[in-house]
User: Fold this.
Amino acid sequence: MDKQLQEKRKKIICELLQDEIYIPMKEKEMAAFLQVSKEDREDFHELLDELLREGKIDITERGKYVKPGKNMLKGIFISNARGFGFVEIEGMETDLFIPEEYVNGAFHNDTVQVRLLEEKSGKRQEAEVIRILSRGTTQVVGTFQKGKNFGFVVPDNMKLATDIFIPIEWSKGAMDGHKVVVDLTSYGDERKSPEGKVTEILGHVNDPGVDILSIVKGFDIPMEFSEKVMKQANRIKLEVSEADMLGREDLRDMMMVTIDGEDAKDLDDAVSLSREGEDFLLGVHIADVTNYVQENSALDREALKRGTSVYLVDRVIPMLPHRLSNGICSLNEGVDRLALSCLMKVSPDGEVKDYRIVESVIRVDRRMTYTSVKKILEDKDQEERTKYEVFVPMFEEMEALSKILRAKRKKRGAIDFDFPETKIILDKEGKPLDIKPYERNTATKIIEDFMLLANETVAQHFYWLEIPFVYRTHDNPDPDKINQLGIFISNFGLGIKTAKEEVHPKEIQKLLGKVEGTPEEALISRLALRSMKQARYSIDCTGHFGLACSYYCHFTSPIRRYPDLQIHRIIKEHLRERLREERILHYAAILPQVADQSSKMERRAETAERETNKLKKTEYMEEHIGERFEGVVSGITGWGIYVELPNTVEGLIHVSDLEGDYFYYDEANYEMVGRDTGKKYKLGQRIAIIVAKTDQFNRTVDFVEDDMGDDGDEW
Assistant:
């Protein structure tokens, strides 16, 4: 059915149900009333199902269609291993709690319709699942356990509260301990377990790499490209032709470099810098990926589906095939490349006085690394300075401009979370050897500052053109989370100002400035970050709280992020004066879905990265069972206290393992308190622990407190 006609018919049905004279009807009655022909009855049934899924209509137990009640809502069900769950409703700050007796067969990630239950004072709003609108989990990854005439799979996802029954004929020959992928054939009920069919055996649970592969498969992250996508990628020439360069600004004589990590292969940004009097002439040159990835091609559809490249502890899963990401789109040294360049004239106080966004052809003079540039600028390493003698003056100018831009952002209140990330070192078998801090330096800051400026400049330019665009937005933090942060930092004698329950980014910035250089810096920075909302992609330019700016987008990484690739297309059409009404309407129609999909895929990638890191941290700590370390109390719950070690490993001291008293959780003050002794555990408190046990399946580490002195092992 034509989409326009479909929407028209859906509108007629909704209007009928809203009419005051409407009496609830069954499907056949309604079809007769609306004079739906017999050949259109199947389409009519599908329309009703779709309206139910969308939550625009409802159906009674007797099968009569009615308008949705005010206490009926639609959302995503998030299950819990203990049987209960939550429902996330778009636009609602707080999730709805679903007691176990009201789950009614909902599975993790299902889209469900819920009915609000009578509100209980002081408790989270409860609801009952009325209807499962669509299934969100169709595939499960887990460990196979073989019986005599059947098998079952224990899901890796701890949110799935039940094992999956596998008939022997659907086991694919899987043996005990195999990691498998299962397609669900039935979701079970109160009497019967869910059933499934093994579609892939990943290997034995102890085989190298299977642990990470299981996580990748569990998040449904595609690892291989289809034959159709690869064929298209293989047709792309690996050299820039003269025809490709036509109409572009030739910047090949401009001195420019890439600065990346040693192991980076997808180089999508190059930088150039010179002076004009007191002003800086800054060029940020970004790979023109859209020249090779045409709209709605197989490559484009696959890139949108993936949304982003995924950077895991032992591998990178690219958004685009390597032929593009590491080849023709990568700004490799000494070769011609197509780019979109943002050429900015920046004043000595960091203001962009003038700028141009142009299609260009460039040639990178040198592929530099963060380590090398750090040696030149921070360490004043003579050997390195001699080796790159011709570039040293430009690097020094870059450092000067970077400091100016950073100071300007700081002045307006931008928050700079400068805490060490961790890099997990693995051996060839995937076994963790070490956990090291991965710290920012002068070189990483230069690139960060220049990219931020280009992203702001491009976003502001297209905002004022009033054409459809994809922005990067970051909403103000939730007042409750800021309140929690305030309670936590009060343990360190620190405070945070709020006005009408809102906080200005400058207040967070001041807090981070106060803890800079202290032992608790990393912890407070991380907790401050957790109190923030998640940045997302949006068609609305609502500003970026963390950066304290009104206009922001992602323009600088089209090889590994789809929103960047998408806005490059819009930019080029605008530059070529092809952005007429038809195309504007086209982008207005597709961009909400692009923004939504990109945000979802970004969250998926981040979660997968976090889970692989947790797995390897747990595996690493297994070798340190019985050893003693010092950490800081990073979280307190009813079931125990969380302690974070300097290497960012977090473990739990269970409440039952707290000795010397009966301890309870004082929720109002975020403290664990001894009933008889009054002993307290507070957020931010330093504590000595012994590693008690690890659980790789659940990716958890358990600690016990050590009261035997103050000397902890150093990391």
About this structure: Confidence is low (pLDDT under 50) at residues 710-715. The two ends are 64 Å apart (CA to CA). The longest strand covers residues 352-363. The longest helix spans residues 581-622.
